[in-house]
Specification:
Blueprint: H1 3-8, H2 11-30, H3 38-49, H4 51-61, H5 67-77, H6 90-108, H7 112-126
Helix pairs in contact: 2-3, 2-6, 2-7, 4-6, 5-6
Amino acid sequence: MTESEFKMKNPSELAFIGDAVYELLARETACEGAGARLMELHRRAVGFVCAEAQADALERLLPLLSEEEADIVRRGKNAHKTAAPRAVSPKDYRAATGLEALFGYLYLAGRVPRTRELFSVIAAAAQGEWPISGGSATENPRVGTLPAQDNS
């Protein structure tokens, strides 16, 4: 498949693949540093993958995206015609789907280094190292923050 064919792929399919790619990156990040119990690793990963955290992550990434990437996000956000889960606002759900569509597109197009670059921005934000202007972990509590590593 060519890159232009990936662009035309159903955005829901891109989001389906992107969900798995994003989850893997979240789990890799959760495992960084000193060893942790399984429950703690799960909590860390969930801090990245919940719809609210993904919506906030997308907001932070938007200034860094190319026009092509922003178009994939827009298509992903507009893909869902079904209702969002009750615990999530429809706006956050659509934004999370847009982010997942972007990660799916980048993965399928073979641009894995770009997925890692974008996720590193998200991970830095979750650590409280906001690389993009617009807040801090205390100002934006919806982003899943990671606890400080206990290296003892």
